[in-house]
């Protein structure tokens, strides 16, 4: 189960809650890169995940708590009745806990300042961006936010409300390779993307975010044997672009955690490159970040790893890592190459 903060606005929050449909803004005039960035975030959501809605202005507040009831999909209809914006990036949800009083945003940011929330340290930046709308939380962080809802609704029995099942949505399903960003306005009926085949340029993904979306979708939905290939068979949490901690200006493209008895015992940090020959400089920087993180968390060696997925790796780098494994008994870096064939299938191979 995943936990997400979904940014929305005061013009559509009531329609969103009454219909049980979340939508993120978007239109065909946006660049292909921006649209695919939104798709990457959207397809990190799956049925049964928990969401909290964040209205960013005029008064920033959090509304909750809801559960996702559908796969993400595209639909460019006029559901939200906003003359200035469309909200095509969607999924359906239902209320699972009732909190009539919303939580003011300063309470959330106080959790960040106190170090109780680390995954969404960039939320204030994301709120003001044109494309970031969905942020993941660790389960422990969600529980901290949940306490805020109880604080502002002390006399409310959060489970005492008339339950309404989430709306069923019937989607046309298309491969991600078939999706045309420039025709976003034409998707007037619910359309779900499937990530078996992806758009490409030459032998590689069309964009880095396409590769990103492919990996996240297939890991979350356990498709194309990707969880096993990447060593994620028993992962518990998956976060996108998670800042590791305040002292480091570093965001992992994907962070996976492995828990035992509700405690995280292993971290996998993923770096993705669409088409780049990765060498010692890049890996040395990643290793420095990992060791700083491990020191900050008091982690033992081999309780964390860095995973690089790219088109090419320097031979000297592979030789260096192989020798490091033998001499120092350290196995904290994994390298994977990938290619995309002419029909959009992705092939991933572990190099070390």
From TrEMBL:
SUPFAM superfamilies: PUA domain-like. InterPro entries: PUA-like_sf, tRNA_endonuc-like_dom_sf. This is Restriction endonuclease. It comes from Chryseobacterium zhengzhouense.
């Amino acid at each position: 189960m995943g936990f997400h903060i979904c940014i929305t606005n005061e013009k559509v929050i009531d329609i969103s809650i009454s219909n049980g449909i979340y939508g993120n803004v978007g239109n065909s005039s946006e660049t292909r890169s921006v649209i695919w960035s939104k798709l990457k975030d959207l397809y990190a959501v799956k049925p049964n995940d928990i969401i909290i809605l964040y209205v960013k202005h005029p008064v920033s507040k959090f509304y909750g708590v809801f559960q996702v009831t559908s796969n993400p999909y595209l639909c460019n209809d006029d559901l939200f009745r906003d003359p200035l914006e469309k909200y095509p990036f969607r999924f359906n949800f239902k209320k699972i806990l009732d909190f009539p009083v919303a939580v003011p945003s300063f309470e959330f940011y106080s959790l960040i300042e106190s170090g109780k929330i680390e995954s969404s340290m960039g939320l204030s930046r994301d709120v003001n961006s044109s494309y970031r709308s969905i942020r993941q939380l660790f389960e422990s962080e969600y529980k901290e936010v949940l306490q805020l809802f109880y604080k502002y609704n002390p006399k409310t029995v959060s489970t005492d409300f008339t339950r309404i099942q989430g709306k069923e949505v019937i989607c046309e399903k298309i491969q991600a390779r078939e999706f045309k960003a420039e025709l976003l306005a034409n998707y007037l009926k619910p359309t779900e993307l499937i990530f078996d085949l992806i758009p490409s340029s030459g032998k590689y993904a069309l964009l880095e975010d396409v590769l990103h979306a492919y990996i996240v979708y297939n890991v979350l939905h356990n498709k194309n044997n990707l969880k096993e290939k990447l060593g994620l068979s028993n992962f518990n949490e998956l976060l996108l672009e998670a800042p590791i901690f305040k002292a480091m200006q570093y965001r992992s493209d994907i962070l996976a955690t492995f828990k035992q008895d509700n405690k995280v015992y292993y971290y996998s940090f993923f770096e993705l490159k669409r088409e780049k020959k990765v060498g010692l400089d890049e890996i040395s920087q990643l290793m420095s970040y990992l060791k700083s993180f491990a020191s900050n968390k008091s982690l033992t060696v081999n309780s964390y790893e860095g995973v690089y997925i790219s088109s090419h790796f320097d031979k000297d780098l592979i030789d260096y890592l192989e020798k490091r494994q033998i001499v120092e008994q350290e196995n904290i870096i994994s390298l994977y190459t990938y290619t995309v064939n002419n029909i959009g299938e992705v092939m991933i191979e572990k190099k070390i």
